[in-house]
Design a protein that fits this description.
3-stranded mixed sheet; 11 strands
């Protein structure tokens, strides 16, 4: 496309992860992600809604940038540390950027690669996050890639195989991915019947790690840290969540049980003065279902774990 001007060739300042991110590891997921980045290999996380997938990638971005000293404290193999140091050296002060693309039915190849804009009779090229990541380095994060239109994801192919590049046909430019480029993503496999499915070709390019619900101790600690409620109340929120997760797992009347995110929202409302019952009904029960019978069952669990109400 002759005479086109690139509108935004630099990484936006707000995409650099500079502030500490709170994350409590469930197991070896942090180590796994760091070793995948060190090897220059893409990775997908899969797990239920609100289980911390995006937060884990944000935390990893923090570690790869201004939080690199925390990696130095980990007992990682020497060859892994050497690769991490080399690949992230230029981001220690600025922070490691995270180019997040929320995927849905409207996500096209232009969202990843870029598209022309016509301003005052002149043609400009607005770079997509995929182009910016391939050009400048950083994490390309596809949020729910199985929701994207089928013709969008092939744009990622040449960035995630031996070519390690992105060709922008409209510009006649090929961006060679720097060592700091990293393709990642996360999705919820439990929604497979309702949404699109990732093709074997796409899946085969990524390593995968399942991030489930945290253990009771970790989840209670997360709720306490993020909401400042007491341990007893946080534990009762977890008990409500366990009941809904059991319902989803055994009775199949719920698509999913309560997520850690919903428990945090309920805890926030309790700290602001709402009752345990009302917070759980508004932030957990109502968002989970519109079915009156299922809703009644969840309400019974909430009443059972509500230490402030008289049990009927």
């Amino acid at each position: 496309m002759a005479g086109i001007k690139i509108l935004n060739p630099d990484t936006p300042a707000e995409l650099y992860v500079k502030e500490p991110v709170f994350y409590l590891p469930q197991g070896n997921e942090v180590t796994y992600l760091l070793t995948k980045f060190a090897a220059g290999r893409p990775v997908l996380l899969k797990g239920p809604t609100g289980s911390g997938k995006t937060t884990l990638f944000q935390y990893t971005s923090y570690l790869l940038g201004v939080g690199f000293n925390e990696i130095m404290k980990m007992k990682l193999p020497a060859q892994v540390m050497k690769q991490l140091e080399t690949r992230t050296e230029s981001f220690r002060k600025s922070g490691f950027p995270m180019f997040q693309i929320p995927c849905n039915e409207e996500t096209t190849i232009e969202k990843i690669v870029g598209q022309p804009l016509f301003i005052d009779e002149e043609t400009y090229w607005s770079m997509g996050y995929g182009s910016l990541a391939a050009k400048n380095g950083g994490m390309l994060y596809l949020d729910e890639p199985d929701r994207a239109r089928p013709d969008a994801l092939p744009a990622v192919n040449e960035m995630t195989d031996h070519r390690a590049q992105l060709t922008v046909l409209d510009l006649g430019i090929t961006y060679r991915c720097p060592p700091s480029f990293w393709a990642t993503g996360a999705f919820n496999p439990g929604y497979g019947q309702r949404k699109g499915k990732l093709t074997p070709d796409f899946r085969g390019r990524f390593g995968m790690f399942t991030l489930g619900y945290p253990t009771e101790k970790i989840e209670v600690d997360i709720i306490m840290h993020l909401t400042r409620i007491d341990r007893q109340t946080a534990t009762r929120l977890r008990q409500v969540a366990d009941a809904t997760r059991k319902t989803a797992r055994e009775e199949m009347t719920l698509q999913e049980g309560a997520s850690p995110r919903q428990l945090i929202h309920a805890g926030e409302q309790i700290m602001l003065g709402l009752s345990f019952y009302d917070a759980c009904m508004n932030e957990i029960a109502q968002p989970l279902t519109d079915n009156p019978e299922v809703l009644e069952g969840i309400e019974k669990h909430i009443r059972a774990f509500d230490g402030t109400r008289r049990k009927d």
